[in-house]
Amino acid sequence: MKISDSDQRLLSKLFVSEEKLWQQESEDLKGVPSEPVLSETPLKTTDSWKSVKFLYFQNTDLSIRWIIPAQVKEALFLHLYNGNTWKAKLGRGLVKSLYQMRGQQLVADGSFWLYYQNEAPLASRFETKQYAIFTGTVGPNRKVIAFAKTERGEEHFYKIPLNEKSAELVKNEHQVLKNLNHHAFEILTFPKSVEKANALSLSNGRQSGMWSSNDFSMLHLQALAEMYEGRVHFQFLSESRFWDELEQLLEAISPSMQLPESFRMKELLIDLREQLLSQEYLLPCSMAHGDFTPWNMYRNQSQLYCYDWELSMAEAPLLFDLFHFVMQTEVLVHHADYGKISQMLHALSQNSAVLRMCQIYEIDFQLHFRCYLLYQISYYLNLYLEQGELHQQAHWLLKIWEEALREENLSTKELWENDRMVFIRNFFPRISNKAYAVLKAAGQSVSEFPSTADIDMVIDPSEFKSIKSLVERDPTIKKCQQRKFPHLIQLFLYFEDESFLQLDFILHFQRKSITFLSAREVLQTARTATDGVKYADVAQDWAYIYGFYTLNGADIPVHYQNWFNSLLSTQRQYINRYFQNNFNCRPEPENAPQYIAVLNRKQPIWKRIPAAFRYLAYLFKSLFRQPVLWISFSGVDGAGKSTIIEEVAGQLRKKYRQKVVVRRHRPSILPILSRWSLGKRKSREKVLSQLPREGKNQSFWVSVIRFSYYYLDYLLGQWWVWLKAVLSREIVLYDRYYFDFMSDPKRSNLVGIETLAQWGHRWLRLPQLNFFLYAPAEVILQRKQELSRETIEALTANYKQTFDYLGKSDPKHQYLCLSNISREDSVEQIMQQIIKKL
User: Fold this and answer.
1) Which of the chain's termini has less CB crowding within 10 Å, N or C?
2) So what's the pLDDT on residue 415?
3) What's the rounded Cα separation, in Å, for the pair 462 and 468?
């Protein structure tokens, strides 16, 4: 397998001290070179050359992770891996077994050769030929780490910096360890360090029997207490060295489109900083390890061995390391969300030992956690912005950090209650380099749009994938649903706080086969307003509004007409000239026929054929899509169905911008039976005047005939309802459904047909969501006094039994029984289920 160019440069720097080109396979080594040579294949050499074969092991992205000389018979690189999950332990065991059987070639991903004439470069540095190398984590702080084992059995780690930043970190670690070694510790242990030839040599202080653990225990807390002892000092937050370093980090953050979340994260960091500065806090500080994580330590019953002190700070708020241990472990090991992390931190804050430490040192647990967030996020945000391409774990951390900032940021909590507003504010700076233009703004900034308004914008079709990718990466979005039309793509954004936004991305200005505006022209003439958002030119914006409503046979909404009338006379004249030049008429309702005639003349029928075919193809494909959603509501009279349905339909229409149709009980493509004998008017009067369950029918066979008629209505009507829902993309809400025949046939003037109805339901198209609303009899009787207490209780039991049976026999659909005492609670629960299905 070929070694990548970046890995070749790294290995050249490590072995040859410069980024030298590797020797090619066809070349021979002759003469006396001034430096070693690297090659991916064996080379022909003279006797003066010596060689070492190396094996390498790759990361998942195929970059080189570990390197070890092929002649080393022990898997020394495992000393550079501190994984303690069952998978990691199993992998270590397998590698050790293969090495014992001399099968290291089977484990390795590839090999390369080092040719030299005097001393092997790294062997002379490590004073042994038994070593392994970890190539380090990609980024500005990258350094090579080696493990070496001498013939006398001495074990050392070496840190070899690759740039100025990593050299500063290695220097910091050496200084910290020197200072620590001047103090006596009982629980906390650490390596000894010696500077050697631009590297740091570290002793292996891990004792036999020590292990790694992902759990924060009393031993970890005792080690921190030991580190704090005699070193705690109090400073006002704004006057502390910690705060000065934090301010420098925060100031250095330069948001980039390469990391879109950096824009809003910097705003959040600044808001939290201002919140903390609004009061003067006296902060207890001490030294901190800085990277206090399970993979940087080992433990036994009485001691904690910590290494990798390069990020250590002389002054940090107490418990900094505790917060870091929990955050890093929960995100990178357990992949927990911030809700779980917050619960874990709260539990720790109530731990008796932690409480005692907080009392001794006057620690404000929440304040110190916020200080940790500010520093940690600022530090790594700078690092990630400099690094560019990030690994998956970095994206996990960024997501949780943003959630944590939003949760902890008191000054903006009210603002953050509406994720929709925040998304809009942050979305447009992130697409500033894209070709787009917002439409139908009517003189408003997008931030001023009503909470139920969607955002229409024309874009270059080639930009949609990248824009959607930016949208989906937003951590406040719980669900992103896409709907595609021939000329338009809609994104429905459901946010974590239950707010909603619809984005309409217009690709072409078409109504069926007619193109009424040039998308390219709108994009070319778009203007950037003072809020940084690109809006369509006023004339083309009105051309879109006028064309959209006129071609759909609708009146232009009053608020758009008011906006047009409020424009300056020069602007209205400009719009009129634009219409006169392009459509030979003024943009007035009475000119609609002339406007349409001009569009038809501009686009002869033969030019519109491709668009017409695309539209017909779209309609044909629609037939094979599932309807948006069918939902049924069942319950005894007085259970509150109508009120709930009205509110659910209102939310779906206004907030979530869905088409909704409410149907009563049956599809009703067949008329009610009494219409055949009484006529349309009298049958309607009878239905309105007669209470439920007052029918006089007592005949089983009459009931069978009546039920057969109703069943035929369901059997045929379901397809008509389905077709309309598919073509119109409607959500269908049924106020009662077929389940009434199974639970309360008397309501439909039927007797004894429950078993027949139960058998027949399997041949019908059933709603995806089915709710049975119930309440205690006394509550229902306060609402309506149509049924007796005994009847209410019996019918409630029947419906619950029916829904229980359907839930077990039909797992494809949901059957939920909800206690409808609080209307707000019921609507909230129902909407949560509906959003999952949208």
Assistant:
1) N
2) 42
3) 11
Give 294-312 pLDDT, tens digit per residue.
999 999 999 999 999 999 9
The model's pLDDT over 384-405, given as tens digits with 9 standing for 90+, comes to 998 877 888 888 999 899 889 9
- 3-state SS class at 828: helix
Beta strands 282-288 and 233-236: pairing type?
antiparallel
Given a cut of 50, the residues of the chain with pLDDT beneath it are 26, 32, 411-417, 683, 687-689
User: Which residues, 6 or more positions from 492, have their beta carbon under 8 angstroms from its beta carbon?
Assistant: 480, 481, 482, 483, 500, 502, 656, 657, 838
Helices marked H in 142-185 — which ranges?
A: 164-180
pLDDT of residue 412: 43
Q: How far is residue 78's CA from residue 621's CA, in Å, rounded to a whole number?
A: 56
Give the integer Cα–Cα distance in Å for 506 and 516.
13
- The DSSP result for 581-622, as a single string, is HHHSS-S-GGGHHHHHHHHHHHS-HHHHHHHHHHHHHHHHHH
Rounded Cα–Cα distance for residues 836 and 829 (Å): 11
Q: How far is CA 598 from CA 309, 513, 518, 585, 608, in A?
A: 76, 14, 15, 9, 14
Which three-class secondary structure state does DSSP give residue 306? strand
Handedness of CA 224, 225, 230, 235 (dihedral sign): positive
Q: What six digits make up the tokens of 229?
A: 């002892």
CA distance 425 to 52: 58
User: How far out from the chain centre does Cα 318 lie?
Assistant: 32
Cβ neighbors of 828 (< 8 A, separation 6 or more) are: none
- Cβ atoms of residues 508 and 458 within 8 Å: no
Q: Residue 491 carries which side chain, given as an amino acid letter?
A: L
Backbone φ and ψ of 201, nearest 5°: -95, 130
Nearest to 299 by CA among 77, 74, 84: 84
> Are the CB atoms for 296 and 220 separated by under 8 Å?
no
In the structure encoding, which two tokens stand for residue 669, read together? Answer: 């493509």
Q: Show Cβ contacts of residue 796 under 8 Å, excluding neighbours closer than 6 positions.
A: 636, 774, 777
Q: What is the mean pLDDT of the chain?
A: 85
The angle subtended at Cα 389 by Cα 310 and Cα 8, nearest 5°, is: 75
> Among the residues of 488-568, which ranges form H helices?
519-524, 538-551, 558-566
Write the secondary structure of 375-431 as one string of H (helix), E (strand) and C (coil): HHHHHHHHHHHHHCCCCHHHHHHHHHHHHHHHHHCHHHHHHHCCHHHHHHHHHHHHC
The span from the CA of 798 to the CA of 665, in Å, is 18
| Residues constituting the chain | 838
At residue 519's C-alpha, the angle toward residues 515 and 525, to 5°, is: 135
- CB of 662 within 8 A of CB of 735? yes
- Smallest Cα–Cα separation from 203: which of 221, 180, 223? 180
Amino acid 105: pLDDT: 76
- Inter-CA distances, 732 with 121, 166, 658, 702, Å: 75, 62, 11, 31
How many Cβ atoms sit within 10 Å of the Cβ of residue 125? 19
Is residue 55 within 8 A of residue 75, CB to CB? The reply is no
Distance CA 395, CA 401 (A): 10
Q: What pLDDT does 84 receive?
A: 64
pLDDT of residue 823: 84
Please name the helix (run of DSSP H) or strand (run of DSSP E) that holds residue 483, with its range, or none: strand 477-484
How far CA 177 is from CA of 157, 328, 708, in Å, comes to 14, 23, 88
Quote the CA–CA distance of 202 and 184 in Å, as a whole number: 19
Structural contact between residues 818 and 829, judged by C-beta atoms closer than 8 angstroms: yes
Nearest to 737, CA basis, from 799, 792, 789: 799
- Model pLDDT, residue 837: 82
